[in-house]
Design a protein that fits this description.
two-stranded antiparallel sheet, 16 helices, mainly alpha, globular, Farnesyl Diphosphate Synthase, single chain
Length: 328
C-alpha cells in the first residue's frame, strides 16, 4: 500500500533542500577550482529552480527525497551558467558580492564553472536509476538550449534590428527552459503522465519568460540594494532587452537620435540616467509591465490544466506569485 505524502510548504521544501545541499559540498582539492565553485554557491540566490523541482514533485505526490538530487542539479547548473555569464559580461558583482572571476581570475572561474556542470549530472542521478534516461534527455536538451540562448544574447549586442519575437526566443532558451526543465524533472520523478509533464513544463516556460522580462525590468527600474547589483548594467552593455527593443521601435525624431547616440555614450552615469528617461518617455515601462502580466497569466492557465492535487497546485501557484512579484 502506497503512503500518500504529506502536503509540504515552500519553507519545508527549502529546509530539506538546504540540508541536502549542505551534505553534498564540493571537494576541498584542488583548492582553486572548488573555492571558486563554493564562492558562487555560498552567495545564495533565490533557489527558485530547486524549489520548483520539489514543488512539481509534490504536486504529483512524489517522493521528495528522490527529487533532492535533481533540485541540486538544476541549482548547480544554473550557478555554473552565472559564473561563465559574468566573465562574458565582465560583471563585477553578483547578488551583492564580487563575482568568481573578480576574486579568483578568469582561468579559475572557467574551470569552476566546468566542474559544476559535470557535478550537476552526478546530482541528477542520485537515487533516480529508474527514470535516469528520461531525466538526462530533458537535462541535456535544456543545457544545449541555454548555451544557444546565451550565444543569441551575445550576438544581439552588436545588432540594432533585433525584433521582439527574436528577443522572446532568446530569453526562452537562455532562461525559461531551465525553469521549465526544473518542473518537468520533478514531475518525471513523481511519475506524472506525459500530458501533465508537458502542461507543467509550459507553466514553467511562460513563468520563465515573465521572470526574465521582470529581471530586465529590475535591472533598469529596480533598487540596487534589493536587486543586489548595479542598476543599469544592461543599458551599459547595450543589451537588447524588451525595454531597449521597444524604445528603438517607439522612439521618433529627436528621441530616436538621442537613443542611438546614447548607445555610444562613454559617461556611464549619463548613459544610464538619460536612457531610463527615454524608456519612460516612449512608454517602455508600461509595455514591459503589460507583457509580464500576460505571460504570468498564461503560465497559471497551464498550471490549471495539470491534474495534480489542488492544494499542492495552490502551493506552487503561491510560490510562482512570489517569484513574479519579487523586487529583487
Amino acid at each position: 500500500m502506497q503512503m500518500i505524502s504529506v502536503l509540504q510548504s515552500t519553507e519545508e521544501l527549502l529546509q530539506q533542500y538546504d540540508k541536502y545541499a549542505a551534505a553534498n559540498t564540493f571537494p576541498s582539492e584542488p583548492k582553486g577550482i572548488y573555492d571558486g565553485a563554493r564562492h558562487i554557491m555560498n552567495i545564495k540566490g533565490k533557489r527558485i529552480r530547486p524549489l520548483l523541482a520539489l514543488h512539481a514533485c509534490d504536486v504529483f505526490e512524489g517522493n521528495i527525497q528522490k527529487a533532492l538530487g535533481v533540485a541540486h542539479a538544476v541549482e548547480v547548473f544554473h550557478n555554473f551558467t552565472l559564473v561563465h555569464d559574468d566573465i562574458m559580461d565582465n560583471a563585477s558583482v553578483r547578488r551583492g558580492e564580487k563575482t568568481v572571476h573578480e576574486v579568483y581570475g578568469n582561468s579559475v572561474a572557467i574551470l569552476a564553472g566546468d566542474v559544476m556542470l559535470s557535478l550537476a549530472y552526478q546530482y541528477l542521478a542520485d537515487k533516480n536509476d529508474d527514470c535516469l534516461v528520461d531525466l538526462i534527455q530533458v537535462f541535456n536538451r535544456t543545457g544545449v538550449q541555454v548555451m544557444e540562448g546565451q550565444q543569441w544574447d551575445v550576438d544581439f549586442e552588436s545588432r540594432l534590428d533585433v525584433t521582439e519575437q527574436e528577443y522572446i526566443e532568446m530569453i526562452k532558451y537562455k532562461t525559461s527552459v531551465l525553469i521549465a526543465c526544473s518542473l518537468k524533472l520533478g514531475a518525471i520523478i513523481a511519475g506524472a503522465n506525459k500530458e501533465d509533464q508537458e502542461n507543467i513544463y509550459q507553466f514553467g516556460l511562460n513563468l520563465g519568460l515573465a521572470f526574465q522580462i521582470k529581471d530586465d525590468y529590475l535591472d533598469t527600474f529596480g533598487e540596487a540594494e534589493k536587486v543586489g547589483k548595479r542598476i543599469g548594467g544592461d543599458i551599459l552593455n547595450n543589451k537588447k532587452t524588451l525595454l531597449l527593443i521597444t524604445a528603438l521601435s517607439n522612439a521618433n525624431g529627436k528621441d530616436k537620435e538621442e537613443l542611438l547616440t546614447l548607445l555610444k555614450e562613454q559617461d556611464e552615469n549619463k548613459k544610464i540616467a538619460n536612457t531610463k528617461t527615454l524608456f519612460e518617455k516612449t512608454g517602455v515601462k508600461e509595455y514591459a509591465e503589460k507583457k509580464m502580466q500576460e505571460l504570468f497569466t498564461t503560465s497559471l492557465e497551464y498550471l490549471a490544466k495539470v491534474k495534480g492535487d489542488e492544494d499542492r497546485k495552490k502551493n506552487l501557484a503561491i510560490f510562482a506569485e512570489k517569484v513574479y512579484y519579487r523586487e529583487f
